[in-house]
Amino acid sequence: MTADHPTDGPGPGHHVPGPGPSGWAAVPPPGPRSAPPAPRPAGRTGTIAPGASRIATTGAALTVVSVVVVEFLAGVVGLLGSSTLVGPFLSHGGTSLVEAFVQGVFVARTPFYVGAFLALAFLVPVVPRAPLPVVLVRALLAGAAGTLALALVGVATGAYAAVRQVSVGRGLGRVFVDVVTTPLQIGLPLTLMLLGTATVAWLLLGRPRTGPSTPPRR
Description:
This protein is an all-alpha fold. It contains five helices and no strands.
């Protein structure tokens, strides 16, 4: 009677992989291929972006110059209307219509223009890679910077005018007008205009595409 051969375990005809004379070893079959990593979501664009660049300066110039152009055209329309009643170069109360036009459109608003431009160029730029809500918030901050510049100039002019007043009450009132009410009177409408001109500048510079991003090819 012959003995039964065991059914499990390597037999004489089985080849057990292992290192051979040349150091060769059996390689296990490759497992399932791992999926490529998902693309990282784009980071949020901050409201404050310090720095200077050519595109930021271009956006600031487009935004502020557009406000100046609108103010200039509105002033010209008012000047033409008033010229039909009185002479534009005749003095009325010590100031002619042309002098009042230059004072109201350029001189009184120049601190706002400068403050808003510097803020848009170096702190809150209007750039195409920023989404529109961020651009609008940046325009509001630039308007606040321009209003603050008006208030700082009003400190000097108000203090000078207060010294020339006959009473302390009138002097304090003049300081209040130059530092608080006049900057707000000028800054609020110009800030609202900045919202529109910043949107136009953002569109002209090329707003970013909002389509779904495709993962990079391997």
